[in-house]
Amino acid sequence: MEISIVDVSPKPGIEGDICLYVVETSKGLILVEAGPPNGFQRLEKWLLEREYSFSDIKYVLLTHIHLDHGGGAGYIVQRGGNPEIYVHPRGAPHLVDPSKLWRSSLETIGDVARVYGEPQPVPEELVKIPSDGEEVELLGLGFEFIYTPGHAKHHMSIYLEDEDILFTGDSAGLYHGGTVIPTTPPPHNVEESRSSIRRMMALAPGRLGYTHFGIVDDALDWLERYEIVYNKWVNHVEKGYREGRGIDEIYRELRRVDVGIEVQERFFRYRGYGEEEVLLSLYGIYSYYEWLETRSSSGS
Ligand SMILES: [Zn+2]
Questions:
Q1: How close is the Cα of 65 to the center of ligand 1, in Å?
Q2: Where are the domains of the chain?
Q3: Cβ atoms within 10 A of the Cβ of 241, count?
């Protein structure tokens, strides 16, 4: 068995933005993530170069259904693949009918959604829904699904026991340039995110596989670093919110004290879209506190 990282970044000529993982076994392929629709050609090229066809893909395991992670699943089926596709129960309906997901993506991330591309539907009979903590054996390998909400309500992290690697999707941040920062666009849930980080730590994996981007050893070390940065952002935004400061000011202040932001923003500029990703993430945390306040003032 071998794990390969396939770069499925959607912009031509741009590397290191979004990846998926291919687990190669003698009985077929297992994909972790399907990549964005516009990264699909890179997956196809990778398969052809190794004389695989789409029918060799037996399973696709999605951390969540956002376009950059699950958007390519329908294309695999369109091209003759017939894999079982594992997804969180709250994400499953949007794989089968992605029209609402596409509309809401256009509303929330706009041009970024167009860079990722429009998803195609997945036949319902291919969709598998694991429960939280469920362990399954696929092509002789043991996988465990752990619900890790926060980034999205329908987020799971996926542990491959044989390789002691946890695929974290977006639940352990973005890893670029040797730094890790949160990706927390609205709607974001701080409490859920914190317990998800704790849960991943409790699992004590050896390695992490980030979708953005690549594998790190010393998983616990990176989860701890992530937790520190995450809490720093949250505390900073919460304080700014309570003091009545606007999101732009909060962003400028945080940029001064967190060098990781600059490193990652350099990467965002290189890839040529979504340069305001950090600002959007801060806004996700900010709007969580707005939501908490409306919830408590409405007395529910
Ligand atoms: Zn993502």
A1: 9
A2: 2-229
A3: 20
**Å from CA of 227 to ligand 1 middle:** 18
Rounded to whole angstroms, how far apart are CA atoms 169 and 151? 9
CA of 68 to the centre of ligand 1 (A): 6
Q: Which fold has domain 2-229?
A: Metallo-beta-lactamase; Chain A (3.60.15)
Q: In the structure encoding, which two tokens stand for residue 119, read together? A: 């998803």
List CB-based neighbours of ion ligand 1 within 5 Å.
68, 170
Measured distance CA(179)–CA(210) in Å, rounded: 12
pTM above 0.90, yes or no: yes
* Span from the CA of 66 to the centroid of ligand 1 (angstroms): 7
At residue 299 the predicted structure's pLDDT band, cuts being 50, 70 and 90, is low
Contact predicate 214/17, CB 8 Å: no
CA dihedral (81, 86, 91, 97) in degrees, to 10, reads 20
Distance 244 CA to ligand 1 centre (A): 30
- The three-state secondary structure class of 205 is coil
Q: How far apart are the CA of 82 and the centre of ligand 1, in A?
A: 24
Interval 88-125: pLDDT, tens: 999 999 999 999 999 999 998 889 999 999 999 999 99
Q: 300: CA distance to ligand 1 center in Å? A: 32
- Enumerate the β-bridge partners of residue 252: none
Q: Which two tokens stand for residue 32?
A: 């972790």
